[in-house]
Protein 1
Amino acid sequence: MACDSVKTPKATVPGNEPERLRDKTAGKPVLRFLTCGSVDDGKSTLIARLLLDSQLVMEDHLQALELESKHAGKGAQDVDLALLMDGLQAEREQGITIDVAYRYFATKNRKFIVADTPGHEQYTRNMATGASQCDLAVVLVDARKGILVQTRRHSHIIDLLGIKHVVLAINKMDLVDYAEDVFAKILSDFERFAAHLNFESLTAMPLVAAKGDNITTRSGNMPWFNGEPLLSFLEKVDIATASDTHGFRFPVQWVNRPNLDFRGYCGSVSEGSVSVGDEIVVLPSARTTRVNSIVTYDGALERAGRGAAITLVLEDELDISRGDIIAGGKDRPSVADQVCAQLIWMGEEPLIPGRRYVINCANQTTGASVTKIKHRINVNTQDHSAAKRLHQNDIGVVNLAFDRPLAFEPYARSRTMGSFILIDRMSNATIAAGMIQFGLRRADNIHWQAIEIDKQARSALKNQKPLCLWFTGLSGSGKSTIANLLEKKLHAQGLHTYIMDGDNVRHGLNRDLGFTEADRVENIRRVAEVSKMMVDAGLIVLVSFISPFVSERQMARDLFDDDEFFEVFVDTPLEICEQRDVKGLYAKARAGKLRNFTGIDSPYESPEDPEFHLKAGTVSAEALVDEIVLALERKILSR
Amino acid sequence: MQSLNHLKELEAESIHILREVAGAFERPVMLYSIGKDSSVLLHLSMKAFYPSKPPFPLLHIDTTWKFAEMISFRDQIAERYGVELMVHINKQGVEQGMNPFVHGSSNYTDVMKTQSLRQALDAYKFDAAIGGARRDEEKSRSKERIFSLRTANHRWDPKNQRPELWRVFNSHLGPGESMRVFPLSNWTETEIWTYIGNEEIPIVPLYFAKERPVIERDGMLIMVDDERLELPRGETPEMREVRFRTLGCYPLTGAMVSSAKTVNEIIEELALLRTSERQGRTIDKDQAAAMERKKQEGYF
């Protein structure tokens, strides 16, 4: 290759022996595991004990710990091991774990990465974060308390996330006099509960994490226990489940173009393997070609397996970009724009069907919305119940629709191709973790009918540029008055217009909808879709709707081309609207006879950056309409 | 199919993260501190984008109190790797005569490192800053995400971090927000050294034991790197065989007595050490949770 010159010169450090260096655990399989369970069951203490007993706690850290334990009112000989793990000041102050901490330790046999996860229900999202990185879970139970709600919740989440190997660590045995029957009872309770879950192995052990019983050595206090201590079990446990037969999967991360002669695609092999000469398919475009070469800094490869970070050069020049999936030509993932998936809802705001979110699935990013919540899962009883929304920490099964088809596989087959996150469009927060169960085939059977007369042809005939003017504002702000006046002026100029009014639409198209948040979302969705059709028909559409939520107005905006949608914020102060109270609705709402009324007991989210911001409380409707006409004139008349 | 051995796994994971940054952000930058972790990060970047050069510049926040050997090493880096290196110094800090001896380590670090970094990030409007921090270094770092959000004021909110599941990274930013990205999150100190040895990565010679002039002050061995180190207590520098486990500003970085002159000897020494990596760093100990507080303010 012509690019050898960019390679780094080798170092001139002393001691560069030609043979590989001796890191005693290098080359050994890593075990990634988490500790979970209810608050105060001793998760952090257990990890601290593992680190302490494998001599991995450093002296300066231990000194700091003794100081802090004294500070917290504990004797120096009785250091609080959890303080070693809880790295945030708020955690140490409150004595709880808030966020997941990752710890690294190695014995002579294995390297471990352990995720210490929080037990409180409100931090379930952080527990799920830890679990998604792991292959094994240590579920802690306080011997005095037995299986608690949070034990069940965590067991359910680790099962959802596909963890197959579980250690049931029954802790604080010293506080139940090391009684075997307590241990046996908790184990059988757990087994009954876990029968519904998909664990492949379940290993129970009685522990006293704070004192070290059955951690690195067998405990003399519980001679009735014949099993191995925890650490030697973890050193030996075999977690290999990966199959060699999986088709090649490669989400493209970055297009590598150092010069005109080289075009490669950077990414990591998420499933299967790839060899030079293999036939591949690029999804979703479904174009096929062959692998020309596999480039790495350390030299070209003939073959690359799971996990390898490589650069693929293909035989044909195809249009491939970040977000495309390269897959084996024969064994391909599914492609669909609707799927059924399990969701762990993490957002502070509840999930509302119809609301638009951003999905990221194997680097494919697009808009998505939940079309239906099939059911919510009660983690305590495993029961399914109907739900109109999912709240923070709820788990549910939903149908999702994407803005464009995505390539995916069921999560049970591929963690990379079957997992996704949902992102809030406004706050950019990660609000859900999802695991795809299967694709919905509807998309395959409904084909888009191509129509030859298009928007441009229709609007040309009308000699205008089609537009959507979206009026938003409180009830009584003057939206309809201004829209009416504007339509009259446009009509007088010979333009083709139509008004969609909130009240009028509820008499027909949307008469089945009420005023709950979910119904309002659906109300707006329908109106936005109809307006889009009208714009497609070449019309200038004036939509007059309270439309109080930023995300719904964004949903409407997303349906249109960039220069077609104009948000008109009719900004009249609440007091003035309430004074006017044309329809007598404010009075009813204040009297408690009308629920969910915008501005009174339901929020109005003001537009941040509307195309038109009308101060309608102080300026006359006439003047405001003239302002809009002036600004629009060029756009509309010049087509 | 045989699984990658774990150093290869770590390497692949870091390359994956670096490529995510290049793919997902408009103006990324790599924070280059001249230390061993930065050396590994730079080496991994050369691998990640080969045959292209890393699609981001390097940025060094120069406090003007680094070891002279670090600066001469840094100045060769840009040429050696063929990458763009930017150096930022907090000019107001220099004009105020910021000095770790006079102003105290905490104050000095805030002005010459934290504020300086924030100035540079703001001036160039970087939306992602790649750093070499590792979770095994310090307990507040063990809590940090790989993609770690910063507010428009560069603040870290440790109690409200985005969930980070699988290898799906949320790179979406609001106005003014930025991301700190830590590709070496899952590496340990021993793995860094093993990798440096295996890959023959150039590092500053201060990491290797040598006779150096040091004085003992407040239980730390401070190297007399230039004439700015005043000796009011009449201390006399003595030559001792020392090396540095981490590198920072010379007045704030303690040396350790050691005879480890090769990477192999360092790894052997680490296996016997009973103190943590940042033990030689004054700035971590000013008060309880010092690192967490500094990180919240925008320190790396």
Protein 2
Amino acid sequence: MGEVAVLGLGMHPWGKFPDKPLNDICRVAVEAALADAGVRWREVDAVAAASSRFSGGKGWGLNGNDIVEEMGSTGIPVYNLSAGCAAGANAFNVGYTMVASGMHDVVLVVGGEKMPKGFIQTSGLDDETDPEYLRQRCVGLPGPGFWALLTRQRMAEYGTSEEDLAAVAVKAHQVGQHNENARFRQLFTIEDVLKSNMVSHPLRLYEICPVSDGAAAVLLCSAAYARQKSTHPVWVASSAVATMRFDDGLPRGLACVPSKGRAHHSEARISVGKALEGAGIGAKDLDLVELQDNTVYYELAFPEEWGMCEPGESESLLHKGETLPTGRMPINPSGGFLCFGEATTAQGLFQLCEVGWQLRAEAGPRQVPGAKIGMAQSIGLGGNGTAAVLKR
Amino acid sequence: MSKSNSIPAAEGLFTETADGPRLVGSRCATCGSAYFPRAQACHNPECERTDMRDANFGPRGRLASVTIQGYPPPAPVVWSDPYTPYAVGLVDLEDEALRVIGRLRVDDPENIEVGGEVELVLASLGHDDEGRDVISWQFQPV
């Protein structure tokens, strides 16, 4: 496998843009990535795109085809990848693989999404074979309720307090306020967070991410191509994709087989483990991590599950400021999902853009000093998990 | 409650037996893995041969976690008007190697202890558009 460079990064800010077509949002991100790389559209050999369930793609998830038409139909191959909220990062893995294999020199990876209002709902079909439908119909547990069950288990096990949960959101906005691409940039106090509406006890409105619109793009290329364009590019150290294990103890539908140890997202642990192994580093060697914080719970649980710190240690690291960009274990210097909101299939790519900017020392007030190696991680419906390590 | 005025939330997921209510699922006779709802094939990658049999689960279990639904969720969730926040539990069923979610039937959702013993009941989640009780499995403290 050949080396793969991350030559261009581009983003359309996250927000709500009711009057702006999805194609316009995506084009902003793609043109920014091309300009950043100094590459013309006609030089792109292939597109790997995240398939959206919610917007564009002609109703078939053909979001990559929309982008090619928008940018100019050059006849290049398009790969539309679906992996729920992990689709953007899944597309990155496919783009990476195509460049690393030598199949293509220059691949554009892109994800863009306009989300409907409210929390993400079921498939929309009254389908009694759909576990998500049954969970809503027979029990009444929306997505935030699932996260709340995990959170409450952590509280019972480690004594995590509601103030600890709120402190994660406070920290997210403390760094996210500096990110011009983030949607929610206001500062919160612990009291502000604790006063926000209870969604699914113990999780409050400011402790979960709402839906957003947004798009991000990454331009990948071969080492030979990269050296023509840049003297000091960011490299992909590894890219991994996984699915869940049978016995991880998470009831993704109505029930599951109990786990032997703590219930956890095995798809995340496996993809992160593979990415770290592929990069030849340990979890504690990462200078920063962009992880999927749909809710504050994940920022506490994931670093422990991946070996970045000890089980039950996350709260104290948070309170000591160690998860800030200037700390020992910087997490989500972008502000994370809590500050961006979720444009589902674009999320994995905003994370990779952030890691890339951090490694190029272009992150301004949220910069992780001296960042040389960082990881982006996402999970999606169906038990999809991704992780990628970038280095410079 | 007359029969015509109630409907199950979904077909084939629970039953009333001589010993009380049970969840209806499957168990693999080869490896023992339990499934709810029914599964056609064993999902255990270590299992050598799928041999699925119908199995009933319940009624006792331990509450592994709990949440309270703070806002009225949209359809297809069923709740009683006016909305009052309800609790949902994660329950490890006794001896059956199955962890299942279910609404909790309690008077005071704020004061539920994680770790407590619960039992299965079949009860109304609320009314549908035609005024019928929508019946589902729920758990209540023992």
Protein 3
Amino acid sequence: MQRISSYEDFLKLKNRVQSIMASSERIISVCGGGGCSSKDGKKIASALKDELGKKGLEEKIKVKLTGCHGMCSWGPSIIIYPEEICYLKVKEKDATEIIEETILRNRIVDRLVYEDEKVGKTPHLKDIPFYNRQTRLILGYNTKIDPQSIDDYIALGGYSALVKALTQMSPTDVLEEIKKSNLRGRGGGGFPAGQKWETTRNAKSDIKYVIVNGHEGEPGAYMDRAILGGNPHIVLEGLIIGAYAIGARQGFIYTRHDAPDLLKNIETAISKAREYGFIGKNILGSGFDFDVEIHLDIGIFVSGESSALMRSIEGKIPEPRPKYIRTSVSGIYEKPSNLNNVETWANVPLIIENGAEWYSKIGTERSKGTKLISLSGRIKNAGVIEVPFGMSLREIVFDLGGGTGNGNDLKAVHFGSAMGGSIPKELIDTPLDFDACAKLGAPIGAGGLLVLDEKDDMLELVSYFLDFLSTESCGKCVPCREGIRQIRKLLKKIKDGSGTYQDVETIREICDVQKEASLCALGRTASSPLESALKYFWKEFESRLVKEK
Amino acid sequence: MDYLESIIEKYSRRRNFLIEMLMDVQHEKGYIPRESIFYLSKRLSVPVNEVMRIATFYKTFSLKPKAEHVIKVCSGVSCYIRGGREVVEKLENLLGIKVGDSTPDMKFSLELSSCSGRCASGPEIEIDGEVYGNVKPDDIEGILKKIG
């Protein structure tokens, strides 16, 4: 591989890799994503390759093991390009038939095709409601590229934004573009990314850091894995652009320890980017130096909190600290450190490439762009989707998600996992929007959407989240550590049928103290699911309370 | 202590990779042996109590040897509402141990793992790296028999 040191070099490389990609008559994309890897994506890919080999077609038709396609309940899925034929629930033994029928005879294998009551049998991606209602700006790459191949990403336009930023824009131009786009942080808070970048950029220090938060510890949230595992380069590209705008020369990617394929893809991405000179000294001849290292979460929820995460990058216990001074001013080793979530970084190349004006046309007035959502719980089409802000939750749950899929009625949707809240079915027409959802007490969080049906018990759900948080809390501050324990005790009493109205009052009081006095967001929002349940599903609590005489 | 030296070298003796080093020790040995804590402390010039604090902070780390087969049940919320709790109860009953313990013959350890993101196929258990999706309590006896 040659080092790319100018705009012209890059164009030559892009032309070359595009013509290589165009030389395949067809590409068969096999989902090897997180949700499917337990379902034999690797075996299917190699069975397809074997079949093609037997027919002498391995040069003309390429098989790619890709990241998550998104439709996890129907996995493993394969997509045949250019026709975009989608086969679902594919098994290793289907390989022969797929090659003989579809590749050699252009015939559809009927039993592997999507089917529902509304649209009937539909083999093409563009006719499947799960896909055609989405706006897959980020996820769109997933079905087309081998996550281990930087050339695949470049052929589809990858790294063009980095080249544009470094050869045609000043760091201030980049910052202004991000600010103008109104990109808001996708990790939970929804804080304007440009404003955060500016704080770190303006902080007085020679050393600054940028960080990708790929911790994703929320139960039921798995969209960041879909991006990082399926196309790590888009995140890396965003990170390098951000570092350039902010003035950081060192970056960190913080991710999970328990997903070996994910880690391998990130490591490969970094080393390929280094070979092309997108990381290292004097990137693209611009004089800008930047390097990245990976750190691992060893499995505790609190280490996804920004100040805790930064401690753990220093090799210390991930305990949060009070944020009188923001981490964007004093973070890793007390240096200004800008942390954004995986999805936030992945949006950056899109904005730089297409401009803030283009970007701000997508979404609602105050929530711009698309949002990745992972659908779980009582839902027919569980998986990862990407939709524009403003889409109604009804559309997400019913049109894309296919409803509960078990014959039971919808009861509520729960956003934001253990730090979020539930929205009852009566409010299902609420648009997907940071502020609209937060106002209802169910902030989007990182985008994990749990669907509940009429048989689900809200007290059980709330207890689950509190049990989870009690083991994931670092234990440093009293309101969080002790507060959660006391609430759990009272909740158990209510579940057992001996709780009183006074117990509910006590719970509310503890919730108030937790919100006021906890050190970090984990403690401050620990009671959110409980409070939203009390607000919308009070009957479920009341019916269990001891009736006062 | 050769394995410890090569782990330390993998991270160029850098103190800020202490957590990753302990992870590698756990991977290599299946738990964190007492002597490795002292060894890392000395080689990295980090007080023993600090290494110890990390080793005891994370539930992923174990100071006790694990059994031959480690059963991990996904503790994610989607698995939970779809019957994960009943799966845990069944495992506890069949093995006669609680989550976090190992059977006296050191054949099985039972653990909860954080959400695997395979919510579409929950409840899920993972045994020695092999993933079993859509598990029902009645399936468990068969799965355990298959393993030994």
Protein 4
Amino acid sequence: MSLNINNISRSFNGKEVVKNVSFEADPGEIVGLLGTSGCGKSTVLRAISGLDTGYRGEVEINGKASRKVEASTGFIFQEPRLMPWLNVMENVTFGLKGKKESKDEIGRKYLRDVGLAGSEHLYPKELSGGMAQRVAIARALITSPEVLLLDEPFSALDAFTKMQLQDLLLEIWEEYRTTIVLVTHDIEEATYLCDKIVILKDRPGRVGQEIILDEPRPRRRGSNALANYKTDILNSLDLSRV
Amino acid sequence: MKKSSELTAGELHGTKPQGRGGLKSQKSRVQTVILGSILPIILIIAWELLSRAEVFPSYQLPAPTVILDTIAGLAADGSLWGHVGITLYRVLIGFLIGTAFAVILGSIVGFYKKAEQLFDPMIQAFRSIPSLAWVPLFILWMGIGEPSKVTMIAVGVFFPVYLNVVSGINGVDRKLIEVGKMYGLNTFELIRRVILPASLPSFLTGIRSGLGLGWMFVVAAELMGASSGLGYLLVLGQNTLSPETILASIILFAVVGKSTDWLLKIVEQKSLHWQDNAVKA
């Protein structure tokens, strides 16, 4: 599915947080929203998701303007946000309807996908941060979303788990070709994952620059090409001015 | 109640394989019981010895064995079950009525802002009246029969349950509600699948303290005027100058009250096994 973000502005209590943000995502594209903290990245993402409807401007999904939560949209939050009273399987199948047996069968497939086969009966309190986020990923994927929104999904994880889950996200993307919008403040993550990086800057946040990354996948972390992109992005963010 | 982010973001811990830890945990449980019993046992033995040595006059503080004999006597002539039964019955009915009202009103106030503005100030005002102050009025209205007693107990149970239902619903993590919304749940489904389970811990806390107050109020209600029940035994003991009857009644109150609380505690542990509680060292 394609996404078209047209001139989104959002104020909270009269204070403008983002101003006239526009960008597009083609079907199957991974778009990164990158910016310093407080520039309104998450605000834009919440507007796209339909969780927040108090914005001005328009979000078009496949050419149709939408202001509510669409069934075709999945959201992965910064924290896993698992229901503590449900076990892993029940959490993963939270968004499914129908009989328990058929739900569990689908659930097992997605748990295998995220490498958690055999953990169905654990409760969130028994999971490590990385495992919990894997469950959250499976939960978001299980409704086969055509647009996947991620709000700094790996920022609370340690460096190794983070890399694992980034690769997991790419594997899943290879399989399902979901359109992905990824909010992040991690430049390396953005250059490793994204086809296009939209840089938000200033307060209220606005689009500073769009960078297209045509580096083929699989990309190598720490390669020169990615390092060059990183330099571009750092220049564009102009951090010395803050 | 802990926030869900804390619940979910923790390290891998808890639930070790049962086989290896089973024996050890059983041993530590026995140890806990023994540790907790030392002081009461010493006190009871000392009490018994001092009573036999007639340090305590028996018309004021009879020996533990005498109290046990009294209870055995009540059990033998069959009146024990009547007294315990009617008291339990009063508490149970009052508890159910109080809880039902508290859950209904508490849910409405918890879910609807307008209802909160409408009802909550008045309920808070009523709460500041010491509930025992209602006793004379209830007796005047309903006589000294069962209705006034049950109402009394229901009033006592109502407030802790109500407060905990409201705060439980208000305290549901907004982040979890957002997850529900992301899956297109409507209001009813959100309540059933997210808000109710998330506010369950607070609700159960309310029910347990409500039951505690229920036991307190049944004593008050039965002291005011009753012809049966454990509270009646208290009055009877006072009027017939037999402290052993009073103490027997107190002990029965303790045993029955503790048992009902224990039942609720089991329900609580069973339904809240998912909670990530700190384990005391």
